Automatic annotation (TrEMBL):
Keyword Magnesium: no
Signal sequence coordinates: none
Compositional bias segments (type: Low complexity): 21-46
GO (cellular component) term, any one: cytosol
GO molecular function: 1,4-alpha-glucan branching enzyme activity; cation binding; hydrolase activity, hydrolyzing O-glycosyl compounds
Record's protein name: 1,4-alpha-glucan branching enzyme GlgB
Catalytic activity: Transfers a segment of a (1->4)-alpha-D-glucan chain to a primary hydroxy group in a similar glucan chain
Length: 805
């Protein structure tokens, strides 16, 4: 065989690069091992290798043609290599079938009589040569990709490499089967206990240096698997040569692959209990291919955080005693087509201009179907790659922190989709989902519910919550669909659910999980807040876990949202019959720590945008919209508003095109109407942030007092908010399209005059500009149970805030 001109000096090291495609080298095959013409050829870099079944058929066909059995002949080898003991048929079969639990016990280097036995499994190779202690020794071919031989060495070499010759190239690699496990005993112990709070550091694909060699450690939890192999672009998606070892009773499988680095694309080839195979994405993947591709990607962070000051001080003030107004964003559609880094140059500035203290991101975890908005997660540890890499997402969070904006994100531990490459029956049996089909199947969304009673599953989720806070500096988690987790009979009919051990309908496993998650997040991450989307009257959602509560910091007030939207959607003439819809929330306002949400769920699927819910003509709709926001910002509780509602978008939100930004274009004749509403939101946030009475005592009954909650005939609501020092702010909301002059309300004693600090009817907001321009002086006239009162003019469909002069 004639040697071709080498592409590098013979002394240069030859490694499998991080891109994982074999490097073509110009090395002449050893004369002692001529390549048979019929030797299999490794597939091109962009072409997967033939599947094992096809190779088996090819071997049988060749055997039939020659009249010999399909067991291979022995051949090749160097003179200084002794033949090895023939591999046991059982081990041979299990390795080829991908169901061997201890490949390191068979492959690699092992002391034996007469020296050291080397055995390698390299399908399609023509020869395998061991390079150890300055010597080269070609192993003998045992067929089916097995090569073996005994070298007369006194002890196991500290390290060795394999030179593997294929038909058209030769590669030189470290042998993966010479390495000790790259995961520690403590990690395995904690995984077995279900208490590994940094699970992402123990499982998944971790680039690292192990025993002095750079590579990637692959670890996966698959306790029901008969065998697991790593498959990826570095082996042409044929994992035959890369079986993983089982590490005891933990159900963890491990393999360190030298030379495989960042950017490598991979999956796990799992042999199920019935012997069939399935290829699965890594449940612990920190990066994924861009959907609809489904493989996992090896990654490591290079981001250098710039938010040390933010992180050090974000917990200085308890969240329920701090300003907290939230702009909810669906990142892929806020400005469609922008990457994380492009968003970082636009989103922080926009949110800061509006004055919101936080953004809440709809789920950013990887999900296969964009139309799910991220609520059907397949990659719980991976930010969606649709907009960039994990470090790109870190860059966005860093930029928001630099702008003084906290970052909240939706987190979805309630369910996961049934995709056959993801978590569903991951290792051939129910693993992440409950083993009882009635408990596993989510009745509403066609998904599967997690088995919260399984310690490893609970660990997977609790660790995931802390992962986002610690690896991405997330400031809060809004937990989706908590009610569906808490109740065994959620959306189920009689006969479709079984009571708990006490005969109740509470899911005690889910309760324990949520308590553990909240306790762990708060202990490990000072300043982080957790929020529950919980739509029932479950007691103690925001009560501390050591007092029997679930331990959330805040809860979405779904009752307030529903009732207030019912009221505001009525024609003004009918509102007096629904007056209590606006006042009932104060009956339970201090039973939990609440957020008042006008979220994405309220402006899709036929529910209409917020301004479109309002009755009347276009002017009245905008006026109602402004008055409602003024009422909302003054009501006890934190605020949340979904994107597009800040400028009164009339159409429902669509993830396909996002907000209707064109409404703000100055060339659009009605843009002033929308800009006016946006100016109001900016001023609402500015005044809100400046006046502690609007947020400092949100969770204390002493921070609120009705002036008149019963003015149903006037469609009016008036109340006082107090800060911790007792300084008051008066809010009056008027939901009739008429002007009311000399409207008398009782006011707290003390202030010598009251002045308007905000009026949603101001001309700059698009209103009729009915104002109370002069200070309002109290009179010694009793009203609403108070000794002093003032008279003011109530603008039509407007909210007015007054503070002491």
């Amino acid at each position: 065989m004639t040697a071709r001109k080498p592409s590098r000096k013979p002394s240069d090291p030859i490694e499998v690069p991080p891109t994982a495609k074999p490097v073509t080298t110009e090395v002449t095959a050893p004369a002692a091992a001529p390549v048979p013409a019929e030797a299999p050829v490794e597939a091109p870099a962009d072409t997967p290798a033939p599947p094992p079944a096809k190779r088996a058929r090819a071997r049988k066909t060749a055997a039939a043609a020659t009249g010999t059995p399909p067991r291979p002949r022995r051949g090749g080898g160097s003179r200084n290599v002794l033949p090895a003991v023939v591999l046991d048929d059982a081990d041979r079969g299990r390795l080829l079938a991908g169901e061997h639990h201890d490949p390191h016990g068979v492959l690699g280097a092992h002391p034996t009589s007469g020296g050291v036995l080397f055995r390698a499994l390299r399908p399609f190779a023509q020869s395998v040569t061991v390079l150890a202690e300055g010597k080269e020794a070609e192993l003998q071919s045992d067929g089916d990709g097995f090569f073996s031989g005994v070298l007369p060495l006194p002890a196991l070499p500290d390290g060795y490499r394999l030179r593997i010759a294929y038909d058209d190239n030769t590669i030189e690699v470290e042998d993966p089967y010479r390495f000790l496990p790259a995961i520690g005993e403590l990690d395995l112990h904690l995984i077995g206990e279900g208490r590994h709070e940094e699970l992402w550091k123990a499982l998944g694909a971790q680039p690292m240096e192990h025993q002095g060699v750079a590579g990637t450690r692959f670890t996966v939890w698959a306790p029901n698997a008969r065998g697991v192999r790593v498959t990826g672009d570095f082996n042409y998606w044929d994992g035959t040569a890369f079986p993983m070892r089982s590490l005891g009773a933990t159900g963890v499988w491990e393999l360190f692959l030298p030379g495989v680095g960042e950017g490598a694309v991979y999956k796990y080839d799992i042999c199920r209990p019935d012997g069939s195979h399935t290829q699965r994405a890594d449940p612990m993947a920190r990066h994924t291919e861009v959907p609809p591709a489904t493989a996992s990607v090896v990654t490591a962070s290079r981001h250098e955080w710039q938010d040390a000051d933010w992180m050090a001080h974000r917990g200085d003030r308890p969240v329920h005693e701090a300003p907290f107004s939230v702009y909810e964003v669906h990142l892929p559609s806020w400005r469609p087509g922008l990457s994380y880094r492009q968003l970082a140059s636009q989103l922080p500035a926009y949110v800061r201009e509006l004055g919101f203290t936080h953004v809440e991101l709809m789920p950013v975890s990887e999900h296969p179907f964009g139309g799910s908005w991220g609520y059907q997660v397949t990659g719980f540890y991976a930010p969606t790659s649709r907009m960039g890499s994990p470090d790109d997402f870190r860059f966005l969070v860093d930029a928001l922190h630099a702008a003084g904006i906290g970052v909240l994100m939706d987190w979805v531990p309630a369910h996961f989709p049934r995709d056959d490459w993801a978590l569903a029956e991951f290792d051939g049996r129910p693993l992440y989902e409950h083993s009882d089909p009635n408990r596993a199947a989510h009745p509403d969304w066609g998904t599967l519910e997690f088995d919260y009673g399984r310690k490893e599953v609970r660990n997977f989720l609790v660790s995931n919550a802390t992962y986002w806070c610690e690896e991405f500096h997330i400031d809060g988690l809004r937990v989706d669909a908590v009610a569906s987790m808490l109740y065994l009979d959620y959306s189920r009919e009689d006969g479709q659910w079984s009571p708990n051990e006490f005969g109740g309908r509470e899911n005690l496993d889910a309760v324990a999980f949520l308590q553990e998650m909240n306790a762990t997040v708060y202990r490990r991450n000072p300043g982080v807040v957790t929020m529950a989307e919980e739509s029932t009257a479950w007691d103690g959602v925001t009560r501390a876990t050591d007092h029997g509560g679930l331990g959330f910091g805040l809860k979405w007030n779904m009752g307030w949202m529903h009732d207030s939207l019912v009221y505001i959607s009525k024609e003004p003439i009918h509102r007096k019959y629904h007056h209590n819809e606006m006042t009932f929330s104060m009956v339970y306002a201090y039973s939990e720590n609440y957020v008042l949400p006008i979220s994405h769920d309220e402006v899709v699927h036929g529910k209409q945008a917020l301004v479109t819910k309002m009755p009347g003509d276009w002017w009245q709709r905008r006026a109602n919209h402004r008055a409602y926001l003024g009422f909302m910002w003054a009501h006890p509780g934190k605020q949340l508003l979904f994107m597009g509602q800040e400028f009164a978008q009339g159409a429902e939100w669509s993830e396909g095109h996002g907000p209707d930004w064109w409404l703000l274009d100055e060339t659009y004749e009605a843009s002033g109407d929308h800009r006016g509403v946006r100016s109001l939101v900016t001023d609402l946030n500015a005044v809100y942030n400046a006046l502690p009475a609007l947020w400092q005592r949100d969770t204390s009954p002493e921070g609120f007092s009705w002036i008149d909650g019963g003015a149903a005939e006037d469609n009016a609501f008036s109340f006082v908010r107090y800060d911790a020092d007792g300084s008051p702010l008066i809010a009056v909301s008027h939901f009739s399209p008429v002007v009311r002059h000399d409207y008398r309300i009782g006011v707290p004693d003390g202030p010598e005059a009251w002045v308007e600090v905000l009026n949603t009817d101001a001309a700059r907001y698009g209103g009729s500009d009915v104002r109370n321009e002069e200070p309002l002086k109290p009179e010694a006239v009793q009203a609403h149970g108070r000794d002093t009162s003032i008279t003011l003019t109530l603008p039509p469909l407007a909210t007015v805030w007054l503070r002491p002069a």
